[in-house]
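Model it.
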Amino acid sequence: MPLSAELISVGLAVVGAVVWLIRLEGRVNTTERDLASTNAKTEAEAKAHRATADALIRVEEQLKYVRELLERHFVIEEPAPRRRRTGGSGS
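Modeled.
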């Protein structure tokens, strides 16, 4: 039974469609894998950011406590403004 041109064309179209679907699935899998790694990286960065923010809050609280202690035990005076000396003749 000889193969007709129409049958060959249909066969090539089917093979082409299968190859296209396989490549498309590969791209989808790659995109999902990249997205998962990006999400994991983003979550790790957000967790580190929250830890840094918490540490800064603790430092601010400790600085406030130290300042209150210093103000309670020492009189802190604001320095007097400095007068500018003019280089004039002195009159």
